[in-house]
Amino acid sequence: MPKVVSRSAVSSSTDAQPTASSEAALRVYYCMCGEFVLVIDKSLTSLPRRKTDNAIIVRAQDSNDGKARVFKLNAKPIEPILIEREGGHEHQYRFQCSRCSLTIGYQTSPPPVKSAPFLYILSGALSQVQGQVPQDAFDGENDV
Ligand SMILES: [Zn+2]
To answer: In what residue span(s) does the STEEP1 domain sit (predicted)?
Structure first.
């Protein structure tokens, strides 16, 4: 019989709770300049990354491989660029911070956001200012 270990509640410390309890699982990410950029239902650190540029992959459309993430991107679309990839080219329709113009991420079809199967977030572009440890930080620790 496998032993069932119920994960004990991790400190629901003194952090202010997000408004509606139904949105408690949402995470908010900010640009380096402090501008609110992304709210999403899963920690970015737990999402897969592209092999090409290490960008974080956010599924934007339902498919056979999985359901789309729930997210909202607050960034402004800019001119697409053409990237050379092995075996071809790739259009990147980029989004940048509306305050400081830092490039946040891109998708492979023209705006609006979610018109492509995936949204890619550039590695290191966003931070979770709230200073809380991601819930998945200790995944695997209990598998012993
Ligand atoms: Zn910014």
So the answer is: 21-135
